Amino acid sequence: MLDDRERRALERLEHELASADPLLARRMRRALPTWRRWATWRVLLAAVGVTLAVGLVVLGLAGQALLVLVILSWPLVAHMRAQRPRGDPAE
């Protein structure tokens, strides 16, 4: 969010605006919780997005590992099929 220096500058600006226009100050105080809610939702949506991205990467890596295992085991499967007799009912 905001660091201390930015927060102090924002509070100073809010104070100056409040002293110049009380109606604007009242509206700003009412809108502050709304902005905090929006910030909370943005952080939550960002966390969900990161979680989905990590999940997709893990799923992709698992798929690649499975594909590598299938490719590496193919010579063994071909050798085992070549060893079977031609009339074997297991085919």
UniProtKB/TrEMBL annotation:
Name of one Pfam family that matches: DUF3040
UniProt entry keywords in alphabetical sequence: Membrane, Transmembrane, Transmembrane helix
Transmembrane segments: 43-76
InterPro entries linked: DUF3040
Protein name: DUF3040 family protein
Organism whose genome encodes this protein: Actinomycetospora cinnamomea
Taxonomic placement: Bacteria, Bacillati, Actinomycetota, Actinomycetes, Pseudonocardiales
